[in-house]
Amino acid sequence: MRKKITLVLAMMLLILTASAKKGPKYVFYFIGDGMGTNQVMGVQYYLQDVEGKYGFKPLCFTQFPYSGLVVTYSANSDVTDSSAAGTALASGEKTDNNVLGLLPDKETPVVTIAEMAHKKGIPVAIGTSCSVDHATPGSFYGHTRHRNMYHQIGTQLSESGFEFFGGAQFRSPMTRDDSDEGNYVQAEKAGYTVVRGYDEYKEKAKSTDKIILFDKEPKSENALAYAIDQKEGDLKLAEITEAAIDYLTMKNPKKGFFMMMEGGRIDNACHANDPGAYIQEMLDFDEAIKVAYDFYLKHKKETLIVITADHETGGLGLTAGDYKTNLKVLQYQKMSKTAFSEHLKKMGLEIGDILTWDEVQQELKENFGFWDTVELTDKQTDRLRSVYVETFGMGPGELKEGEYFEVEKLTDEAARIMTEAAQISWAAGCHSGSYVPVFAIGAGAELFTGQMDNTEIPMKIKKLAGY
After folding, report:
1. Residue 4 and residue 19 in contact, taking contact as beta carbons nearer than 8 Å
2. Please, is 43 exposed, middle or buried when counting C-beta atoms within 10 Å of its C-beta (0-12, 13-18, 19+)?
3. Among residues 6, 340, 368, 398, which is most buried (max CB within 10 A)?
4. pLDDT tens by residue, 379-421
């Protein structure tokens, strides 16, 4: 009798142990490119400030139960670039800046957690708000001596065999002399169906074996439209995330999946020191995470969501030196710097002459809220007027080919004044060596706490998921 009881207890212990060690079946890995701790805190202050209150209003992912701080240095610099950081986050290996998916010797390939998952038969999705061959998404399947070898990275995308890709487009689909097949042709030959826009995805998804979801209309910046500029029909990161979940669960409902989604335009907005665009990119990133969180609520015991960043961009400061901020003014910015420049150029082309100061002033009112909802000092108005004269000072009827359309100085000045009005600051237009955050929820999420190196994150995911 005792032997039977002992045997039963041993079997129960074995079952409990096996159950306790069972890792996540579904892994979501979100990377906010350029998203430092101040980028996260700033948008939370903004949300509360818009409501006329002090304090902060949490995002979806900042309410996850586990969080920590991540160190981001590369193999050859305290300030990493996206390819070195992406390689670390994808593989657990440090490499030099500008190197993608190779060790610092620029010859030895690393093995990424996406590749490990795929080798085990687990479906993989890679998505981004930038081009699919950019540094962060490319780090999960690409192996090149330099991150700018876009055509080669695009070729390696097709060779990866991953089931789903989503993003803006291929950045450089052809070689300079067109001596090689274009990345689109390579993808089709490798069995991928290329679809444009979320609606076409829904039409064709069931009849495909592997799929690449691109934006409906390619943008000149090789990225999805900034969230602040998006129009109806523009592809969103949340839609890419929805499509990836739908596709991987539809094709292989029992195998689970590994998914990496990048909020790549946070980095672009912070490089540009564009305050309104940065805020909206952070909110857009959170919307994509909400899609994953909704999935988690239905599969709590089988799902892990990890959110982190590759580095901080811009040296964002949540002060301008006066012990307060005024972030609510950023709600009145209606265009990114890039879109506003294009808008002014288009106006000039349509009228065939320079814009008057009154016309420019009206555009600044409508798109930045200046003088109406955003108060400017006389000095700030004079600065704008001076840059206007510098840009448009040829006088009516004296339009010179090419000169008028260089309006970026005016747009830069508008963004600087918007930053001042929000009472925040930027230290630079490049990356910094600051901490970035990590947040996690789900199976094994308790491992993502405290200070850690960026190389530790994929190793923890690898261990938990059994890759």
Report:
1. no
2. buried
3. 368
4. 999 999 999 988 876 555 454 555 555 789 999 999 999 999 9
What is d(CA 241, CA 260) in angstroms, rounded to the nearest whole number? 9
Are the C-beta atoms of 244 and 12 separated by less than 8 Å?
Answer: no
Convert 61-85 to b/e letters by CB count within 10 Å (16 or more is b).
bbebebbbebbbbbbeeebbbbbbb
* pLDDT for res 102: 98
pLDDT score for 252: 85
Pairs from 404-411 (Cβ < 8 Å, separation ≥ 24): 404/348, 404/354, 405/345, 405/348, 405/349, 407/341, 407/344, 407/345, 407/348, 408/337, 408/341, 410/344, 410/360, 410/384, 411/337, 411/340, 411/341, 411/344
3-state secondary structure the chain: CHHHHHHHHHHHHHHHHHHHHCCCCEEEEEEECECCHHHHHHHHHHHHHHCCCCCCCCCCHHHCCEEEEEECCCCCCCCCCHHHHHHHHHHCCCCCCCCECECCCCCCECCCHHHHHHHCCCCEEEEECECCCCHHHHCCCCCECCCCCHHHHHHHHHHHCCCEEEECCCCCCCCCCCCCCCHHHHHHHCCEEEEECHHHHHHHHHHCCEEEEECCCCCCCCECCCHHHCCCCCCCHHHHHHHHHHHHHHHCCCCCEEEEEEECHHHHHHHCCCHHHHHHHHHHHHHHHHHHHHHHHHCHHHEEEEEECCCEECCEECCCCCCCCCHHHHHHCCCCHHHHHHHHHHHHHHHCCCCCHHHHHHHHHHHHCECCCECCCHHHHHHHHHHHHHHHCCCCCCCCCCCCCCCHHHHHHHHHHHHHHHCCEECCCCEECCCEEEEEEECCHHHCCEEEECCHHHHHHHHHHCC
Q: What is the mean pLDDT of residues 12-20?
A: 46
d(CA 186, CA 194): 11
Other beta carbons less than 10 A from residue 383's beta carbon: 17
Please tell me the distance from the alpha carbon of residue 398 to that of residue 389, in angstroms, as a whole number.
13
Residues 375 and 417 sit within 8 Å (Cβ to Cβ) = no
**pLDDT of the residue at 82:** 98
Which two three-digit tokens encode residue 358?
């009154």
Token code pair at residue 245 = 């979940």
Please work out, in degrees rounded to the nearest 5, the angle formed at the alpha carbon of residue 263 by the alpha carbons of 261 and 267.
145
Contacting residues for 311 by C-beta, under 8 A, at least 6 apart: 33, 34, 36, 72, 79, 80, 81, 82, 85, 431, 432, 433, 434, 436
Contact in structure between 434 and 309 (CB atoms under 8 Å): no
